[in-house]
Amino acid sequence: MASKSTKMPDDFNIYYLLKGVLPLETSEEPMDESRDETNPQYQGLTGLRNLGNTCYMNAVIQCLSSVSPLVEYFLSGKYTAALDKDNGEIATAFAYLMNDMWLGDFDCVSPEVFRLVIGERYPAFIKKTQQDAQEFLIHVLNELHEALKKVSKKRNQGTSSSTWDSRASYVSESSIITRLFEGHLSYDIICLECQNTTYKNEIFTVLSLPIPYETECSLEVGVTSKSMMAYKFVLIILGASLYMNKYSSLKNVVNHFGDLDGGHYTAFCKHTLTQSWYSFDDSQISEISECDVHTSAAYLLFYSSQTFSVPVKTQNG
């Protein structure tokens, strides 16, 4: 781990777990002497050691590490104010990992502690077998949300205060995850026979889209149109093309090479300062051109409607 990292707020002894695990690890590679770690150009360019078929984990972590508003939330220590002390081990371990990846002394660090902590909740991730990157991402986002959420009860519009019950109100749960990753999907389904239109709204964090067929809609499908609108900060789209419209731009990509039962994961991430693209292949990092990002191996696509800025760690963080 990064020796220059300050001790972060910790009610779960993650700091001491780090001290106990890291002497056994040899994955931390000293920083290249030609690289000035105080230069923001190099911050966030830290490789992750493969712990045995954990490339799926490394690729997802690199993409999350490139979402600078999320990183800044943890580096600044803001997360501690919202942290559920009974359910905060995973969020705390994630904060330490982000600290090492952005403010550390090494070109490569080990995600071992984060893997151990999340593996206690999801045993599949502690095994040294290949797992699905989408499944891992969903679990990480869910765990961070549960640890950092703020619950409030809101009254539906058009109801009186005397009818404040489950029918007249709803529970709202907000967190840094919902603020950054939650989107609203609005679409309509039109029946080809009766022309009846159904309008629906759905909330999502990860949106799975099937690869479109080249055939036209038919009665067997029963749908003539499906229009979608996505709002909020980061949109994660699976199984789609790398087409970028005027509402959003591509920021990160998780690539999968191989078949459904195995293969290898890598990540392409756009650096927040230089706006250059980098390839993250476990511990190996290399700069790539934008045209290299567009490949058929793309599996998870991170889109943003806003420009990311470099994360800033506050003085009291």
From TrEMBL:
<dbReference type="GO" id="GO:0005813">
    <property type="term" value="C:centrosome"/>
</dbReference>
<dbReference type="GO" id="GO:0007032">
    <property type="term" value="P:endosome organization"/>
</dbReference>
<protein>
    <recommendedName>
        <fullName>ubiquitinyl hydrolase 1</fullName>
        <ecNumber>3.4.19.12</ecNumber>
    </recommendedName>
</protein>
<dbReference type="GO" id="GO:0016579">
    <property type="term" value="P:protein deubiquitination"/>
</dbReference>
<dbReference type="GO" id="GO:0004843">
    <property type="term" value="F:cysteine-type deubiquitinase activity"/>
</dbReference>
<dbReference type="InterPro" id="IPR028889">
    <property type="entry name" value="USP"/>
</dbReference>
<dbReference type="GO" id="GO:0005829">
    <property type="term" value="C:cytosol"/>
</dbReference>
<dbReference type="GO" id="GO:0007265">
    <property type="term" value="P:Ras protein signal transduction"/>
</dbReference>
<dbReference type="InterPro" id="IPR018200">
    <property type="entry name" value="USP_CS"/>
</dbReference>
<dbReference type="InterPro" id="IPR001394">
    <property type="entry name" value="Peptidase_C19_UCH"/>
</dbReference>
<feature type="domain" description="USP">
    <location>
        <begin position="46"/>
        <end position="306"/>
    </location>
</feature>
<dbReference type="GO" id="GO:1902749">
    <property type="term" value="P:regulation of cell cycle G2/M phase transition"/>
</dbReference>
<dbReference type="InterPro" id="IPR050185">
    <property type="entry name" value="Ub_carboxyl-term_hydrolase"/>
</dbReference>
<dbReference type="GO" id="GO:0030496">
    <property type="term" value="C:midbody"/>
</dbReference>
<dbReference type="Pfam" id="PF00443">
    <property type="entry name" value="UCH"/>
</dbReference>
<dbReference type="GO" id="GO:0032731">
    <property type="term" value="P:positive regulation of interleukin-1 beta production"/>
</dbReference>
<dbReference type="GO" id="GO:0014069">
    <property type="term" value="C:postsynaptic density"/>
</dbReference>
<dbReference type="GO" id="GO:1900227">
    <property type="term" value="P:positive regulation of NLRP3 inflammasome complex assembly"/>
</dbReference>
<dbReference type="GO" id="GO:0032741">
    <property type="term" value="P:positive regulation of interleukin-18 production"/>
</dbReference>
<dbReference type="InterPro" id="IPR038765">
    <property type="entry name" value="Papain-like_cys_pep_sf"/>
</dbReference>
<keyword id="KW-0378">Hydrolase</keyword>
<dbReference type="GO" id="GO:0035063">
    <property type="term" value="P:nuclear speck organization"/>
</dbReference>
<dbReference type="GO" id="GO:0005634">
    <property type="term" value="C:nucleus"/>
</dbReference>
